[in-house]
Each structure stands twice: as C-alpha cells, then as structure tokens.
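Justification of computing resources. Each target in the renewal requires a structure prediction run like the one illustrated here; the chain below, 427 residues long, is used simply to show the kind of job we budget for.
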Amino acid sequence: TFIMESLLGASLRSCSSGGGGSLLSTASALAGKTVGLYFSAHWCPPCRQFTPVLSSIYSQLVEIGKPFEIVFISSDKSEEQYNEYLAEMPWLAVPYAARDVKDALSKKYKVSGIPSLVLVDGDTGNTINPQARGAVASEGAEGFPWKPLEVAEALGPNLVKADGTTTALADLQARKGHFGVYFSASWCGPCRSFTPKLVEAYNKLNKNNQPFDIVLVSSDRDKKSFDEYLGHMPWHAVPFDDANFGKRTGALSEKFEVQGIPRLVILDSDLNVVRSDARGAVMKDEDCSNFPWHPPAVADVDENPEPLNEVPCLVALVEEVDEAEQKAVQDALTAIATSSSGKPKDADGRELHFFFAAEDGGIGSQIRRIAKVGKPKQGKVDLVLLDLENSQTCTGGSGTAEEVGKLAETLAASFADGSATFTSLRS
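Resulting structure tokens:
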C-alpha cells in the first residue's frame, strides 16, 4: 500500500537464499499481513541471540500459511556487516543505502535500543504492538499476532487482596473514582520507602470519601515475596498465581512504558491516563489537596525528569532567583502552555512541554552542562529548549524574571515555526 511505501520505501530487499537479494515491491510484499519491523544489528549480542529465535517463529508461521512478514531495519555500521547479517535471515529488509528510512523509522517508533520489534498492519500501517519482542519470545508462534492486552484486560477481570478476597475490576470502576497502578516490588529499596507514603494517601482519601483504588503490579520473583509485600498494603493486586500473570503485568509495563520502579500511574474510572508518574506529586502532597494529581502545565524537572528524554521541552533555569520571581516565571510559562491556541507544536506535530528547575545541583545542573549555558547567575533566569529525542539543544537567552516572559514567547515561537537554532549533542 501507499502507506507502507511511505514508511519503508517503494522496494524491499529479499533476504531469503532463493531471493538472491532481489528487490520486491513493498506494497505487494506486505499487503494483508501483520508486519514486524525488526530493528537489529550484526554487532549487537542481544540481537544475535534473538534473531535465531525470531527466525524459527517466522518459519513456523510462514509454513502454516499465517499472514506474517518481517522487515529488517539495520543499525549495522557498514554494508559488509549488513550483508553478513542478512544472510542469516529468511525475511525482507530495507536496503542498507536507505539510511534516511532507517532514521525516520527509529524516530517514529521511538527506538532507543536494539533489538526492537514493532508490529504494524501491512495495509493501514497502524501500530499493533510497539514493543513486541517480549511477547514474541515468551509466547512463540502460538501467540501470533501478539496483540497486546488492553488495560482493562491486563488489570482484570479480578483482583486480589492480601487476605485472599477477590474483587471484580468492574466493581471498582463503578465507584467512579480514580485508580493508581502501582509498579513495585519487595526487593526494591525505593519502593519500600514510598509504599508507606502511598498507604497514608490511600487511607486519607478514602476516609474523606474520595474513591481511590490502587492495583499493585508486582515485580517480585516468587509468591512468598509477593504475599509478604502485599500484606503491607490495604489495596488490590494483579494475582500472582494467575496463569497469565506474566502476560498481564508485561502488558501493563509496556502500555505505560515503565522503565523502572517504583512507578505510580493514575487513571480515571474509564482507565484513561490522568498522570503517567505521580510518585513525586504524592510525596510532596501530604494532605492530598492536589488529588488526583493532574500534571501541572509547568512541571518541576526534579519531580519528574522522565519526559525530558521523550518530548521537546522548554526549561526555565531559576536556581538563583527568589521564590516570588520563580513564581512569576512559572506564571509566564503557564500562560504560554495554556494559551487558547494550545501548546506550541512543531512541523511534526510534537507539542512543546514546559518545565522549571529551581534546585541547585539537581537536574537543572545537568541541563546546564549539556546545553552549555554556564553556571547560574544571581537574579538571572536561563532558558533552554531540549529536544533529546533528536539529541539537540537550543539556548533561549538569559534575563530577569520580568524579562523572561517575552524571551520564552520568542523561544516557543521559534520552536513552532522551525527557526530555532539547535546544536547537536552528537558533535
């Protein structure tokens, strides 16, 4: 289809011995199939371990006539390595010379490490599973087409408490409150420190008739540890002894892009995301007055730095201005972020997110270092555009709290119209 051609190019290289490296039409090769976009490289040991596993599964499915195809997208450092690795594969590949296609695909699917396997519909190009490697490895050919569980399927239908009682997810949803999906484990020190704080918030909110249900998604390695840890919690958990425990918890981790624990995801009663990581917000909100902890228009980088790596951000570095001036800067950024015209977007439709850094020596110091804006100066605010997805930064000038509103407007506008001058971090 035209959509797949726009993603992968008009032609793909055949990797099978019978194909002899010939070029095939992308549209005809992928029509009607589930397509695995396989990001891999010859020099990568985990890739070389996974490739034979994937090859075996692929061959099994093709042999029984399943509509499945794989397209290799190479991160090899030379065409010689590419060709050598290609000889081990029975599927198709993006030609090595099409490096622009490889770069665009890596950006589109946010591939930060390899091996990575993204499943898409060969007719529409719609993503079926953005992180399919784990499911393919654990479920094998029997799991085809490895469609990830929806949130309701992964959380429910039933949840368990420490005393063994079970509750239907639907009954908790009927309370019309909020959910906290709590990724945690007994062996994790930060988790064991955060859990008592979360218990306090849970009890306080429910005592005040603000329905708040939490579901533990455990990373414990055995049922004894799971039971012991859940015994310290008044809420529910995905049952450890459920036959699909690994599939359910894995699906939730992938859905919410959990890279580390503890992690607290807040959902509404319809299971829509309210906040992707509320741990810092809970820690700072002892009386729970900000529940359900909607993300602020302008966030503190030290409270939740994770988005800095994922989305374009405008950061105000305010370490050396007083609290009143910090508040004035936050208000100025909030006005831009909540404008009636919406957050500024670039040509690719990416929204600009807004942050401030007030803690001396915190995340702000790292931003200063990579953006090369120097040490903080008394009474001055420094502005930086971060686009770490593309490994680039742009400095937006320095000024007083009064001046920074106009500077921020200009910087945000330059992001939107493409005139911002970025410096690559790769150089």
